[in-house]
UniProtKB/TrEMBL annotation:
It is found in: Cell membrane; Membrane. The gene is mntH. PANTHER family: NATURAL RESISTANCE-ASSOCIATED MACROPHAGE PROTEIN 2 (PTHR11706:SF33), SOLUTE CARRIER PROTEIN FAMILY 11 MEMBER (PTHR11706). It is a multi-pass membrane protein. This is Divalent metal cation transporter MntH. H(+)-stimulated, divalent metal cation uptake system. Belongs to the NRAMP family. The chain crosses the membrane at residues 36-55, 70-93, 114-133, 139-165, 177-195, 227-245, 278-296, 323-343, 375-393, 413-432, 444-463, 483-504. Pfam families: Nramp. Its main location: membrane. InterPro entries: NRAMP_fam (IPR001046).
Length: 519
C-alpha cells in the first residue's frame, strides 16, 4: 500500500478521494469572540472568488449589448439573476460546510460512475465556454493596451498559467486579497465612466421592475430578442461552475465539527461574505448595462464588441455629453476600459482553474497539477477563438468584431443550459434533513424560491433553444438554417430532458441509499 501511495505522489496524474481542495481545506484559522466586523473580515475572501465569475468578460458582452439594444429593459434580469445567484451560492456554501463534501463529490456519491462522467464532461464544457470569453477579453485587452496582434495576443493568454503558478506559492489568503483588489479596480472604473455619463437614473430604476416585454421574442434588434438577451445575461451571471467552486472553498476555514454553533456561525458569516461580494457583482453588471445605454449616443455604436466600445470611448462624436467628450480626448476612458477588461480576465483565470480541479477530483477522482490543467483547458479554449479570427480575416473590421462578439454571447448561452444539472442536485441535497440535519436543511421559503428558480430557468432555456442555435448562423439566418435550427433544438431539448430525468432518478435512489445507511 505504501509503495502505491508513493508512486501516486510522484505521478503526473494522481488518484484523489480526500477532502475537497485538500491543500487549503480547513487550513485558515478564525479566532473566536471577536466583533462582528472582525469576524466577517476573517471569513471574507471565498465570496470574492465566487463573485469574479459574475463579472467576467462574458458578462461585459451580454450586459453592454443588452443595454445598447434594449435600453434599461434588461436591468430587471440582472437584478433577478443576482438574487438567484445569492440563493444558490448560499446553498452551495452550506452544502460544503455541513456535509464536508463539495457539490461534485456529493453528486458522485449518489450517482453511477457513468452519469458522473457525463456530468463531469458537461461541467468541463461549461468551464471551457467561460474560458472562451476570458481568452477573448484578455487578448483584446492586450491588443488595445499594447498593440499586440490579436492572434499573438490569443496565444499570450495561455501564459497566464505563470501567474497562477506564482499565486499558488503565496498562500490562499493573499490570493483572496488580490482578487478583492482587482474587483475594486473594475468597479471603480465603471462607476467613474457611468457617473460622467449622467445617465437617466429614474429610467434605470424603473428597469429594475420586470415587465412582460423582458422575455419577448417579437422585438428583434441586431439579431437579438429581449429573451435571448435575457438568457445571455442569465447564462453569464448565474454560472454552474461557481456552485462547485463555492462548495469547495467554503471549507477553507477551520471548524469545530463537534460544536453545532461553530458550524452555524461559519454558515452565517460565509453567507454574509458571499452576499456582499455578489452585491458588488450586481453593481458592476448594472453599470455595464447603464454604460451601454448612457455613455454613448443612442444608436451611435454599430460595433458593440470590445474593440468597438474601446474605439467609441475615444470618438467624441459618439459620446453622450460634454464632460465625457472632454475626458475622452485624453484617452483616459478607453485606457481604463481596457485595464478593467484585463483585470477581469486575470481574476477569472484563478477561479476557473480552481473549479476545474474541484470537478475533476469530485467526479472522476483524478488530480493533475494546476498549471497542467490550466494549460490544457486554455489551449482547447483558444481553438474556437483562433478559428473565428482566421475565418473572418478577409471580412470587414465590423464583421470581424461582430463574429468575436457573437462567439462570446453564444458561449454564455450554453452556460444557461448546463445550469440545471448543478442546480437540481444542489437543491435536492440541501433540502434533505438526512444530509443537512434539521437545523441546516433549507427552510420552506428557500425550497420554494429554489424550485421556482430552477424550473423557470430550465423552461426558458428549452423554449429559446431554437433562437440560440440560430444565433450560431449569424444575425440573419436563411430559411434553411432556421429549419435546421428548429430540428436541432428538438433533438437537444429531448436529450436535456432525458438527462435531467436520469439525474433526478439516480439522485433519488442515491438519497434513499444514504438514508437507509443512516437508519
Amino acid at each position: 500500500m505504501s509503495e502505491n501511495n508513493s508512486h501516486d505522489k510522484k505521478g503526473f496524474v494522481k488518484y484523489a478521494n480526500g477532502p475537497s481542495l485538500d491543500e487549503i481545506n480547513g487550513k485558515i484559522s478564525v479566532p473566536k469572540n471577536m466583533s462582528f466586523w472582525k469576524t466577517l473580515f476573517a471569513y471574507s475572501g471565498p465570496g470574492a472568488l465566487v463573485a469574479v465569475g459574475y463579472m467576467d468578460p462574458g458578462n461585459w458582452a451580454t450586459s453592454i449589448t443588452g443595454g445598447q439594444n434594449f435600453g434599461y429593459l434588461l436591468m430587471s434580469v440582472i437584478l433577478i439573476s443576482s438574487l438567484i445567484a445569492m440563493l444558490l451560492q448560499y446553498m452551495a456554501a452550506k452544502l460544503g460546510i455541513v456535509s464536508q463534501m463539495d457539490l461534485a463529490q456529493a453528486i458522485r456519491a449518489r450517482t453511477s460512475k457513468t452519469l458522473g462522467i457525463v456530468l463531469w464532461i458537461m461541467t468541463e464544457l461549461a468551464i471551457m465556454a467561460t474560458d472562451i470569453a476570458e481568452v477573448i477579453g484578455g487578448a483584446i485587452a492586450l491588443y488595445l493596451l499594447f498593440n499586440i496582434p490579436l492572434t499573438v495576443a490569443v496565444f499570450l493568454t495561455v501564459f497566464d498559467v505563470l501567474i497562477l503558478l506564482l499565486l499558488t506559492k503565496i498562500g490562499f489568503r493573499k490570493i483572496e486579497a488580490i482578487v478583492v483588489c482587482l474587483i475594486i479596480v473594475i468597479l471603480l472604473v465603471f462607476v467613474y465612466q457611468v457617473v460622467l455619463s449622467n445617465p437617466d437614473w429614474v429610467g434605470a430604476m424603473k428597469g429594475l421592475l420586470p415587465v412582460p416585454e423582458t422575455i419577448s421574442t417579437g422585438h428583434e434588434v441586431a439579431g437579438m430578442t429581449p429573451l435571448s438577451g435575457a438568457l445571455g445575461i442569465i447564462g453569464a451571471t448565474v454560472m454552474p461552475h461557481n456552485l462547485y467552486l463555492h462548495s469547495a472553498i467554503s471549507q477553507t476555514r477551520k471548524i469545530n465539527r463537534k460544536d453545532e454553533e461553530d458550524v452555524a456561525r461559519t454558515i452565517r458569516f460565509t453567507t454574509w461574505d458571499s452576499n456582499i461580494q455578489l452585491t458588488f457583482a450586481f453593481f458592476v453588471n448594472a453599470l455595464l448595462l447603464i454604460m451601454g445605454v448612457a455613455v454613448f449616443k443612442s444608436g451611435a455604436v454599430q460595433d458593440t464588441s470590445f474593440f468597438g466600445l474601446f474605439d467609441a470611448l475615444n470618438n467624441t462624436k459618439m459620446l453622450s455629453n460634454p464632460i465625457l467628450i472632454s475626458v475622452a480626448k485624453s484617452g483616459v476612458l478607453s485606457t481604463l476600459f481596457a485595464v478593467a477588461l484585463l483585470a477581469s480576465g486575470q481574476n477569472s483565470t484563478i477561479t476557473g482553474t480552481l473549479t476545474g480541479q474541484v470537478i475533476m477530483e469530485g467526479f472522476i477522482n483524478l488530480k493533475v497539477p494546476l498549471w497542467a490543467r490550466r494549460l490544457i483547458t486554455r489551449l482547447i479554449s483558444v481553438i474556437p477563438v483562433l478559428i473565428c479570427v482566421l475565418m473572418t480575416s478577409g471580412e470587414s473590421t465590423l464583421k470581424q468584431h461582430a463574429a468575436i462578439n457573437d462567439l462570446i454571447e453564444n458561449s454564455q448561452i450554453f452556460l444557461a443550459f448546463a445550469l440545471p444539472f448543478s442546480m437540481l442536485p444542489l437543491l435536492m441535497m440541501t433540502n434533505s434533513k438526512w444530509e443537512m440535519g434539521n437545523r441546516f436543511k433549507n427552510t420552506v421559503w428557500v425550497k420554494i424560491c429554489g424550485w421556482v428558480s430552477v424550473l423557470t430557468l430550465t423552461f426558458l432555456n428549452l423554449y429559446n433553444m431554437k433562437d440560440s442555435i440560430a444565433g450560431f448562423y449569424g444575425d440573419n439566418p436563411t430559411a434553411a438554417q432556421e429549419s435546421q435550427a428548429g430540428i436541432l433544438a428538438w433533438i437537444i431539448n429531448i436529450l436535456i430532458v432525458l438527462l435531467l430525468i436520469w439525474t433526478l432518478t439516480e439522485l433519488h435512489r442515491g438519497n434513499k441509499r444514504f438514508i437507509n445507511s443512516r437508519s
